[in-house]
């Protein structure tokens, strides 16, 4: 029997691979009910600032609910052979200390007791001194604006780093609204249109990073981080339309803390396909004092935090970049409609249309100077009131 020619064998092999890969179906693991409810400790000890700790409980992947918080706990930071620093609950499940000043090398840990009487503590860990951020740099690329962080430290210091960042940008709504509806003091009266005083066109929005950004120089000859990628903004990003600012925070980690964050990064960012690495068990440093076998998710490290903020203006970016406004789906309309054969001139009816606050007037016009009919240009509050997507309060740091 003659064998298949090479090209035929390749074709058959290709068909087999196509069938094999085409039959892959999404896999949803069966998660035991006991896997949910684990205590989650999120945060770190800031040795030269305010420490923020969040206590919550894990939920199953198939539960469409937010993680329940652990409220009314007694939380404090404990310095070995030293003082205790209490944390006060603000938003439910979120605890914050006063500004601390703990020297590098001191041993500290987090200690807390839940409202149910369970006592937990992290392992004592030495305070790391985080080096200053040398610079936050950026470069325009074909895909958009790439931001980087740069830093260095002594070779003898810990070569493990983590970064987080907050983004803030200026934006405007679809068009400025020049008018607003003023209800009458007497509810039986129709109210009136007045010139708008409050600016609802200019606003600022902010966003906190969720991606886990890590770096290490352990395999390098010097403890230098150069051009470490932080985030890539598309060239049409609304964040770049006027002015953009990023505040970068840097944390020096221990080897154990770095390993924890690296495992967490792999579990949260690289899972989803057949060819991604399998989830790994997260081994933190927080334990139930009375029952070490109880699983607790979280690693509480201790370090100072370095920060650096930069601003990027639209004029610094390529002229051919066309940034989105975020309001591309919005459009104005008129009342009465321009196509009406007999448009109403009833002022009471027209002002009643705006009394709900959902349609917002933009301006008025007449088709003819002596016409009895006034047309109102309007759109929805979602399209005209920028406060729906941000704040009209100028940030204190804005330049």
- The fraction of residues assigned to DSSP E strands is 35-45%
Number of strands: 24
Amino- and carboxy-terminal Cα gap: 81 Å
Looking at how many chains there are and whether they match, the oligomeric state comes to single chain
Whole-number total of structural domains: 2
* Class from helix and strand fractions: mainly beta
Query: How much is the radius of gyration in Å?
Result: 29 Å
Number of helices: 4
Query: Could you list the spans in which at least 5 consecutive residues all have pLDDT below 50?
Result: 1-24
Order of helices and strands: HEEEEEEEEEEEEEEEEEHEEEEEHEEH
* Mean pLDDT figure: 87
Helix content: 10-25%
Largest sheet geometry: 11 strands, mixed
Shape: elongated
Structural features, described:
This is DUF4249 domain-containing protein. Pfam families: DUF4249. InterPro entries: DUF4249 (IPR025345). The protein has 4 helices and 24 strands. With 399 residues, the chain is mostly beta strands. Strands 1, 2, 3, 4, 5, 6, 7, 8, 18, 19 and 20 form an 11-stranded mixed beta sheet that branches. The protein has helices at residues 6-22, 255-269, 347-354, 381-384, and strands at 39-46, 52-57, 74-79, 84-89, 94-97, 107-113, 119-122, 125-126, 133-140, 144-152, 160-172, 179-182, 192-195, 202-208, 213-216, 224-234, 243-252, 286-288, 296-297, 302-303, 305-313, 333-335, 359-365, 375-380. Strand 3 (74-79) and strand 4 form a beta hairpin. The N and C termini lie far apart (81 Å). It is elongated and about 85 Å long. It has 2 domains: 34-127 and 260-300, Immunoglobulin-like (Sandwich), CATH 2.60.40; 129-254 and 305-393, no CATH class. Residues 1-24 have low confidence and may be disordered.
């Amino acid at each position: 029997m003659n064998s298949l020619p090479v090209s035929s064998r390749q074709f058959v092999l290709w068909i087999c691979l196509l069938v094999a890969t085409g039959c892959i179906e999404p896999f949803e693991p069966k998660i035991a009910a006991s896997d949910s409810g684990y205590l989650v400790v999120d945060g770190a000890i800031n040795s030269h600032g305010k420490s923020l700790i969040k206590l919550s409980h894990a939920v199953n992947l198939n539960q469409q609910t937010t993680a329940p918080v652990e409220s009314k706990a007694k939380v404090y930071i404990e310095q070995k052979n030293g003082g205790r620093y209490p944390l006060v609950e603000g938003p439910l499940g979120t605890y914050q200390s006063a500004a601390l000043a703990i020297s590098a090398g001191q041993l500290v840990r987090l200690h807390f007791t839940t409202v149910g009487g369970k006592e937990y503590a992290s392992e004592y860990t030495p305070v790391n001194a985080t080096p200053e951020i040398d610079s936050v740099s950026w470069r325009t690329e074909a895909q958009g604006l790439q931001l980087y962080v740069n830093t260095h430290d002594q070779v003898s210091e810990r070569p493990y780093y983590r970064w987080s960042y907050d983004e803030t940008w200026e934006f405007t709504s679809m068009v400025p609204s020049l008018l607003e509806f003023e209800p009458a003091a007497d509810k039986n009266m129709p109210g009136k249109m007045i010139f708008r005083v409050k600016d609802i066109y200019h606003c600022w929005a902010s966003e906190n990073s969720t991606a886990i950004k890590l770096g290490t120089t352990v395999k390098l000859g010097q403890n230098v981080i150069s051009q470490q990628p932080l985030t890539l903004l598309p060239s049409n990003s609304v964040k770049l339309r006027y002015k953009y600012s990023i505040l970068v925070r840097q944390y020096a980690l221990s080897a154990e803390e770095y390993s924890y964050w690296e495992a967490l990064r792999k579990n949260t960012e690289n899972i989803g396909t057949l060819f991604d690495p399998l989830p790994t068990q997260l081994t933190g440093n927080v334990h139930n004092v009375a029952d070490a076998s109880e699983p607790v998710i979280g690693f509480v490290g201790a370090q100072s935090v370095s920060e650096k903020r930069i601003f990027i203006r639209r004029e610094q970016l390529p002229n051919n970049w066309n940034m989105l406004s975020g309001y591309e789906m919005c459009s104005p309309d008129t009342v009465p409609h321009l196509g009406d054969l007999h448009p109403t001139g009833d002022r009471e009816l027209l002002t009643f249309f705006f009394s709900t606050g959902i349609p917002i007037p933009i301006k008025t016009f007449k088709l003819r100077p002596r016409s009895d009919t006034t047309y109102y240009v309007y759109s929805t509050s979602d399209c005209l009131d920028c406060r729906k997507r941000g704040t009209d309060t100028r940030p204190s740091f804005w330049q």
